[in-house]
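2024-03-11 09:14:02 DEBUG pipeline.ingest accepted 1 chain
2024-03-11 09:14:02 DEBUG pipeline.ingest length=575
2024-03-11 09:14:03 DEBUG pipeline.predict start
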Amino acid sequence: MRKQSRNIAFAAALVAGTMLGTTASMAQMVDSKRLETADRDAKDWLMYHGSYKDYNYSGLGQINTSNVKNLEVAWMHFPGRTTRGMQSMPLAADGVVYYSGSYSRLFALDGATGKVLWTYFPELDDALIARQTHSPYNRGIAMGDGKIYVGTVDGRLIAVDMKTGKPVWDTKLINSQKLTVGFTGAPLFVRGKVIIGSQGGEWPVQGTIFAVDAATGKEIWSFSTTGGTEEARKTWGNDTWRVGGGGGWMPGTYDAETNTIWWGTANPSPLYDWSPNWQTDGARPGINLYVTSVIALDPDTGKLKFYHQELPHDNWDFDSAIGEFVMIDRGGKHYMVHPNKSGFIFVYDRANAKVENVWPLVHNYNFVKGIDPKTGELIGRRDFSAGPQSEPLCPAIAGGVSWNSGSYSPKTGLYYKIGNEWCITLEVVKTTPITEPQVQLNIGANFKMAPPPSGTIYGHLDARDPITGKLKWEVKFPQPPLASVLSTAGNLVFVPDARGILHAYNAETGTELWSHDDGIGHNGGIISYMAGNKQYIAVEAGFGGLVGDDYGSMFGEPWKSMPRDAGALIVYSLK
C-alpha cells in the first residue's frame, strides 16, 4: 500500500512536472494570441512598433524620472559589416534580444549579458546589391510561430528557427536581377502569415505587397500597389501603372477586431512630373491609385477593403509608406493616426479610413497651401513645369517626417514625433517615357538640400495631442534626428539624435533629464524590455543611408569623418 502510494505520488509529480514544462513551453511560444495582446506585455518587445497598436511605448517603469540619471551602459554588441549604418528595430522575447544588421544578418543575444546565442548570415547577390540605391541596410524583422523572419535586398523572404538560428525556408518573391528592387523594411506576422512590402518608388516597377505562409514559405497572395484593381489602372494614363513605382517598404499593422491589415504605399515613378496638367498629360496622367495611400487589405485573401489616397498624383515624393499606424480609442471613436512624409498627420476612422482630421507637424511646407482637415482634400497644390523651379520645395525629399517612428504614451495621452525643417532646390526634367519595368532609376529631377525660408535646417521633437495636433511642448535640434523615439511608463521619452547623443526627457514637460554620447550617429530603432527582473533600454547606433550620407556636406563635422561602416547595439540599465 505504501509502495502504491509512492508510485501514485511519483506519477502525480511526473504529470505535474510535464504540465509545468508544457506551460513554460507555451509561455515562451510567440504565437498569434500573444502577438495580439502584446500591448499588455510590458516585459517584451514582440514586433516592430512593440504591438499592433504601433505605440512605440514600453509599459515598464523601473527606469523613471527620478532615477534615469543613474542609467549606464550594461553591454554592447558589434555586428560587423554595418555598411551604411544600423537602421533596424530590435525585438525582445523572454529575455532574448533579436535584431538585424546590414545585409540582413541576424543576431540573437542574451538580453541581460549580450552573450551571442546564435547568428545567421544569408548569402546575398553582392553584384546586385552594388547596383541598388537602398542597400545593403535592413530595417527590421518579425517573429511568430517559433521563427524569425527577415527580407533581403535581393528579393527574398527568409525564416530561421527562433531558438537555433537554423534556416527553415528561403522564398524568392521578386526577380531583383530584372527589377533591382527587394526588401529593406520589416515584415509583419499576422495569424500564420508573413506580410512584407517591396521597394519601388524610384524604380519603374509595380510595387507589391506579399503574403507568405509562415510554416512553409509558400506565397499565398500579392497585391500590386499600382495595378491591384481595375479602378486603379484607370487612374494611370497610357497604362503607366505597369511602371508606376509604389511599393510598401515599411511594415503596416493589423487590426484584429476587424481582421484588417493597414499598409502605407510609396511614391510613384517618376517622382516628379513635368506637366502641370497632370490630369490628362505628363509622365503619368491621373491621380495614380494606390500610390501615396493607406490601404486596408484582407489578410486571408489580399483583397482591398478600403483606402484613402493621401496625396493624389503625388508630385513631391511625399509617400505614405512611413509604416506608422497608431490605434487610439477616445470618446467612443476608434482612430488610426498615420504620418505622411509631407509632415502632415492624418487621423482616420479605423472602420473605413474616413478622414477625421489632418494637422501639420512641420512649420515649413509649400507643396500645398494646406489640407482640408475634414475631407483630406489638398488646397492650393504646387505642380511643376520642366526646368529649374523659382523657389525651393518644402519639405525636402527626405521628408518632414520619415520612416523613423514616433511614440504614443497612453499614460500622458501625448504623441511624440520628430519633425524636420528642410527644403530642396529643384530642376524638373522631362523624362523619356518608360513602358516596361527595367533596371533604371526614374526620378524626373535634379535636386539639392536647402534651408527653409525661416533660416536654417533643424529638427524638433513635438509632444502633441495625436487627434487634434495641439502642441504641449517642443524640443529643437540643430540637425534633424533620423532615429526612432521611445516613451515609457517611467514618464520618459528617449530620443537618439544624429550626432550620437541619446537623450531622455520628462514626458510631461520636455525637460532633459539625462544624456549619453554613443560615439556615432543614430539612424535606427530603440526599445525597452525586461530580462532577469531588470529593465533595459536598447538603442542602435551607426550612421549612413540615403539621408545620413548628406550630413557631412550639410553640417560638417562630426559627420564628415563619421564612419558609414561601423555600429553597435548599445544596451543600458540602472547602476
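2024-03-11 09:14:41 DEBUG pipeline.report The two ends are 58 Å apart (CA to CA).
2024-03-11 09:14:41 DEBUG pipeline.predict end
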